[in-house]
Write a structure and sequence with these properties.
Number of strands of chain A: 9
Strand content of chain B: 5-15%
CATH class of the domain at 142-229 in chain B: Alpha Beta
Radius of gyration of chain A: 23 Å
Order of helices and strands of chain A: HHHHHEHHEHEHEHHEEHEEHEHHHHH
Structural class of chain B: alpha+beta
Distance between the termini of chain B: 79 Å
Strand content of chain A: 5-15%
CATH architecture of the largest domain in chain A: 3-Layer(aba) Sandwich
Radius of gyration of chain B: 28 Å
Order of helices and strands of chain B: HHHHHHEHHHEEEEHH
CATH architecture of the domain at 142-229 in chain B: 3-Layer(aba) Sandwich
Oligomer: heterodimer
CATH superfamily of the domain at 142-229 in chain B: Glutaredoxin
Distance between the termini of chain A: 29 Å
Chain lengths: ~450, ~270
């Protein structure tokens, strides 16, 4: 038995890789209330921004900080804000809280534990972009987090951080929490706008980009929860300070969701650029005793899978891109040696088949046929030609649709077939020679 | 009287000559052109305006007095519409309100919301049918969504779904394809795409709250608790789960600087 102090020691050691900025104080009881948040220094950045800073100064600071979007694309947040036209007009800000990517659950944690950090970020971004109307589009499944946000927004209104003439700045801001109703596609920025306008969530043709023509036709700034939660920290401490964290091209910290075959799944906030191994093994504990990492998605189910050889890559936007994958939403799903890659490919493809909105043919048909082919494969009804066909279908989806939902299936499935082709062939052969399977379900992990 | 623009679309010989532009209302008169099989068809312009079912007009925006909208639903939807620059933005929240009131998005409930919002019922139905959480069929009173996506699948999400189905008396195959309701109409169980709680894998959303990680044996307990009205698996509730990384360690000296305005205060309080 470990003594309590020993246990504490070991927990501290496990924490060695974490750098908590957004999740700092996350365990303080009542951090979701304005009282505790303010006591811990909350709304300090906003008060400074509203009293002392010009919008352009904030945009410049955000641009210089190099803060990149944490929702998936990794685009510079400051640059995005600078694209919005200046002047008197109806402009909008949307916080994308529709986190639906398999593997991602960081925004859930951030909103649940520290909703005021997000509201403060939204208020500062709204001042920077001169926006008077903001929305938080939260996925409908996050009912608890939606309730927490509703309560926090009400508190912020009451304290004068939202509403009219905020902190004597003559700047007004209305903030509405809008709940979705269950559709992955609404995380795509233009589909999110359609859903927010009360339609089916179908993506729009780009350009025009939302910064020019977005919600209700007005210029719209769309940022992820984690991106906006970073804003108070950047503004309070300055771009130079922020750049001391992370790498040159990926400054700051990242809340990484680690799940799958690891002993301690959860959200860990790390400095960008630390070795991926440290996150998977050091923080999340790695696979269970006697098992090894076989593959992992480094950035949610949309990212091409990497293998055990890539474990020492730095966890940053640029290193993941160089390795032919992406950091995406920063969600690592680990598959150990018990997971069947063809079945994992099928699971991945089924998700995108279900979630495809059906607007563009390559995505609608491509996801559907990929599922059919993979099902055929694991049932033992496929021919070797099917593997090439699967690959070619993936290639024909990429870049041919309005949004990247289809690509998000094509990239990981394509990578799995490429990197684990022998396993696909073995599975196919084994299934073909096996007696008809009795069970309907398949699982990667025995037992 | 000017000709409607869509008349240009008419195939020569069909619609354009057969129908007088001011024939008393589209889609009703005997002036409809004949179909090749000899049955009367719709005038083309009427088909475009009124829908494509001969003899049936598309449903128009219902009037409030026609739908008997419960006052609390009407008030709620009006309040929702006021929050947005465009009233149509309230369609998803309005449908949530309908579902809360009626248990699912009933045709009658959709008509009630449509009357308040001044949109057609078809419009709201098109929205309701797009989203997984809005039910356009009866869907029980106790809802269990079991995640079967990648991370949960690796940790036994399929088995958990089966255990829930067995305990709740639902069909596992149906539950895997859009949901299944128990014979008494009470329990609804559905396999679901990623619910954003892979750290709880395998997990379930029970009446909109998250629970995990769940053992297959706990499914029966949860169903029993649901049926008896007891608190469901209190130990497994997401709210109770601590942060993965354990307690706050020594803060990084760089982070500790933030935010400057609060530094003095925070040090007084003493860092945890």
């Amino acid at each position: 038995m470990m003594s309590p102090s020993e246990r504490e020691q070991s927990t501290r050691a496990e924490l060695a890789g974490e750098t908590r900025m957004l999740l700092r104080h996350a365990q303080q009881p009542g951090l979701n209330t304005i009282e505790v948040y303010k006591r811990l220094g909350g709304y300090g950045a906003m008060e400074m921004a509203y009293r002392e800073l010009e919008p352009d100064e904030i945009v410049k600071e955000l641009e210089e900080s190099g803060l990149r979007g944490r929702g998936g694309a990794g685009f510079s947040m400051g640059k995005k804000a600078s694209f919005l036209p200046r002047g008197q007009m109806q402009k909008y800000l949307c916080c994308n809280a529709d986190e639906s990517e398999p593997g991602a659950f960081k925004d859930r944690e951030l909103m649940q534990r520290n909703p005021h950090q997000l509201i403060e970020g939204i208020a500062i971004a709204a001042l920077a972009a001169d926006v008077g109307h903001a929305f938080i589009f939260i996925r409908g499944e996050y009912d608890l987090q939606g309730d927490i946000l509703d309560a926090a927004v009400a508190e912020a209104y009451e304290a004068g951080y939202l509403g009219t003439d905020i902190l004597g700045s003559h700047h007004d801001l209305e903030l509405v929490v809008h709940r979705g109703a269950g559709a992955y596609i609404c995380g795509e920025e233009t589909a999110l706008l359609d859903a927010l306008e009360g339609k089916r969530g179908n993506p729009r043709l780009k350009p025009p980009f939302p910064a020019v023509e977005g919600l209700y036709g007005g210029p719209t700034l769309i940022n992820n929860v984690e991106t906006l939660s970073n804003v108070p920290h950047v503004v309070a401490n300055g771009a130079e300070w922020f750049k001391r964290f992370g790498t040159e091209q990926s400054p700051g910290t990242k809340v990484v969701s680690v799940s799958g075959c690891v002993r301690r799944p959860g959200n860990y906030e790390v400095e960008l650029g630390i070795p991926t191994r440290e996150i998977i093994f050091g923080l999340a504990g790695g696979p269970e005793e006697g098992h090894a990492v076989k593959a992992f998605y480094p950035g949610g189910s949309s990212s091409p899978v990497l293998t055990a050889e890539d474990l020492d890559l730095p966890y940053s936007f640029e290193a993941m891109a160089e390795a032919g994958s992406m950091l995406g939403s920063g969600s690592i799903i680990v598959a150990d040696d018990r997971v069947s890659i063809p079945h994992m490919a099928l699971r991945t493809a089924r998700f995108y088949q279900h979630e495809s909105c059906g607007k563009c043919t390559p995505c609608r048909e491509g996801t559907n046929w990929t599922v059919k082919m993979l099902e055929r494969l694991v049932r033992g009804e496929a021919t070797p030609m099917d593997l090439d066909l699967i690959s070619s279908v993936q290639e024909n989806i990429i870049g041919h649709c309005l949004c990247v939902l289809g690509d998000s299936m094509a990239m990981p499935v394509g990578a799995m077939v490429r990197k684990f082709r022998p396993e696909f062939e073995e599975t196919m052969a084994a299934a073909a020679s096996a007696p008809r399977p009795a069970g309907r379900t398949t699982s990667g992990v025995a037992g | 009287m000017s000709e409607p623009k869509f008349r240009d679309l008419a195939t020569p010989g069909v619609g354009s000559e057969d129908v007088a532009p001011d024939a008393g209302g589209p889609g009703r008169g005997p002036e409809a052109p004949m179909r090749p099989d000899g049955t009367p068809g719709l005038p083309l312009d009427a088909a475009l305006v009124d829908g494509r079912f001969p003899g049936r007009e598309a449903e128009r925006i219902p009037e409030l007095h026609e739908v008997e909208c419960p006052p609390q639903l009407r008030e709620r939807i009006e309040e929702l519409m006021a929050r947005y620059p465009d009233r149509r933005s309230a369609s998803i929240p309005a449908l949530w309100a309908v579902q809360r009131l009626h248990g699912w998005c009933t045709p009658e409930g959709i008509r009630q919301a449509a009357a308040v919002m001044r949109v057609t019922p078809a419009y709201l139905e098109s929205v309701a049918s797009f989203y997984d959480l809005l039910h356009t069929k009866p869907a029980g009173t106790q809802r269990v969504l079991v995640c079967t996506n990648i991370s949960c699948w690796m940790r036994g999400g399929d088995q958990l779904l089966e255990a829930f189905c067995e305990a709740g008396g639902c069909d596992a195959t149906e539950a895997g394809h859009g949901g299944s309701v128990s014979a008494d109409g009470e329990v609804y169980i559905s396999g679901f795409e990623c619910l954003g709680a892979c750290d709880l894998a395998p997990m379930a959303s029970i009446n909109e709250r998250y629970f995990g990680p769940l053992e297959t044996g706990e499914a029966a307990t949860a169903i029993e608790q649901l049926r008896s009205g007891a608190e469901v698996l209190p130990e497994r509730a997401l709210e109770k789960r601590p942060l993965a990384g354990g307690p706050e360690g020594e803060p990084d000296p760089r982070v500790a600087r933030r935010p400057p305005a609060a530094d003095a205060e925070a040090s007084e309080e003493g860092s945890p």
